[in-house]
Amino acid sequence: MKCGSPTKRCTGLLVAGVLLAACATAKAADAPSFGSSNPDQWHYAATIYGYLPSLYGASTFPNGTTGPTFKLSAHQIVSNLNLAFMGRVRAQKGQWGVLADWIYSDVSDSASATRDFSVPGVPIPVGVTGNFKLRAKSSLLTLAGTWQFLSQPQAEMDLVFGIRINDVRQKLDWQLSAALPGFPEFAGSSKAGKTNGDAIVGLLGRERFVRDPRWFIPYYVDAGTGNSKFTGQLAAGIGYAYDWGEVTAGWRYIDYRFKSGSLIARTSFSGPAVGLTWRF
Prior knowledge:
The protein has one helix and twelve strands, in the order H-E-E-E-E-E-E-E-E-E-E-E-E. It is mainly beta. The protein has a single domain (6-64, 81-105, 139-168, 194-279), classed as Lipocalin. It has a ten-stranded antiparallel beta barrel with strand order 1-4-5-6-7-8-9-10-11-12. Strand 9 and strand 10 (230-241) form a beta hairpin. The relative contact order is 0.21.
């Protein structure tokens, strides 16, 4: 999927959130908005997710003591998830609140006898293939304030404003070989990493079903920039509310475009998530 300028991407993501907010047209009298039962007190919610992301991206691994600089796309060799965690904590009093959201993922895989790589400035001879093993660790922390400007029985929506810190670490073990006379075998290991902080603005909300307000559609969208050229996030799904909290299932997509000259050009995560939320 191709994207336009950062401004157009920000506008598109925010418009998508507004369109989601226009879905409900009837009241759900027994499903009050978060924090509306007693606006003079603090209300809290803690969510833990099971997250199964796929990694997409492009990175340049710099020249080390044993080999060249590589350019390769992570999604072409990464498919195994080692570890992933996603959690969120919210607090709200009246219209104002805060949230902290953390995502950690650790994925790795390998590719054998592939030609899907490049060495800048050096043509790859026919018959030369590479064996690669890539491991990518990523930590994304969002710290934000919230302002609830829509609080109705059938719908609620908050403006989100804050920062997101992204730390990406990748390690590549590589080996080049060929069934060519006189072609030596090369092997080595390289690392690439990036830590960015970006200002973000977005929307957080939900729409409740008309016939049964315990069922709802949660959504979240944000966009921002700063140390990164662009970062954006979109999540939506379906949930069911209980007296103690709620259960949700959905899809979450996160995209990072780094500025020119960065070893990591782009990283994105996409995958399903199932969550449990406790409210108190």
